[in-house]
Amino acid sequence: MIYHSYKFSCTISQSEILIALLSENNFEGFQEEENFLTAYISSDENISAELIQQIESFGIKFPSPEIIPDKNWNEEWESKITPIEINDLVLIRTEFHNVEKNFPYEIIIQPKMSFGTGHHATTHMMIELMLENKNDFKDATVFDFGAGTGILSIMAEQLGAKEILSIDNEDWAFENMIENYARNKSVKCIPVLSDKPPASENKFDIILANINRNVILEFLPALKQTLKPLGNIFCSGFLPEDEIVIMQAAEKLNLKFSNRKFRENWMALVFKNTAH
């Protein structure tokens, strides 16, 4: 598969707006640098005139694409990825990183094109929230919706979950999950290629949804349907200004707000299912 890269000249605040817009329009990876944001999208995807107009209305010129051959994609990721430490408890690294000290939890991720390396604020916040609620994961059934690399599923297993269903609708993400589960000996993680939650009712103790605002709003009723009474939904992938609409949607479904986090102008929320 051939990918295109677009290098936007922008400020930090503009970069945050760009990531939010582009992630909702089939862009699959982002690389942030000082005064620049590089975004990646499959050459099979069309970029609408409306998206270009919307971005340029913020004073950001939409750049010309550069072709990224598939064989170079992993090299691009690997050249930029460094180990991540979260709260002195979790080390996220690739196989080619040296380990200098021991951590209670260690996750090995070879990301390929999948979202979720621990570098992005949303993944970082989700793991922080999981650590803060680690007792809830013991012997829990977990659903990771839009699992990407499978990093949150691996974290859930290491926190004691007994079964984790991990779904993503991209072939390369599904394949990447399988590889990462093998790397981490994550035998309780079940990868599934799918674009919607399972039909089962009251199945999961915990749902993880690190996607984006539109997908969360679209599927929140279906996710709620699969959640056990008093179960928790952890969600991220949206900006603080999206909080009101997500909170309103959750309230209509009897999902009670229980926690929030902010990081680099991104947000994560946790809700509890109060319906019996």
Globular, elongated, flat, extended or rod-shaped: what is the shape? Answer: globular
Q: What is the beta-strand fraction?
A: 25-35%
Helix-strand topology string: EHEEHEHEEEHEHEHEEHEHEE
Distance between the termini: 47 Å
What is the CATH superfamily of the largest domain? Vaccinia Virus protein VP39
Strand order of the largest sheet: 10-9-8-11-12-14-13
What would the CATH topology of the largest domain be?
Rossmann fold
- Count up the helices: 8
What number is the mean pLDDT?
A: 88
What's the domain count? Answer: 2
The proportion of residues forming helix, as a percent range, comes to 25-40%
Low-pLDDT segments, ≥5 res: none
Q: Mind summarizing the main beta sheet?
A: 7 strands, mixed
Total number of strands = 14
Class from helix and strand fractions: alpha/beta
Rg computed from alpha carbons, rounded to a whole number of angstroms:
18 Å
CATH architecture descriptor text of the largest domain: 3-Layer(aba) Sandwich
CATH class of the largest domain: Alpha Beta
Can you put this structure into words, describing what you see?
The protein is globular and about 50 Å long. Helix 7 runs parallel beside helix 8. The chain is an alpha/beta fold and 276 residues long. It folds into 2 domains: 70 residues, Alpha-Beta Plaits; 152 residues, Vaccinia Virus protein VP39 (Rossmann fold, 3-Layer(aba) Sandwich). It contains 8 helices and 14 strands.
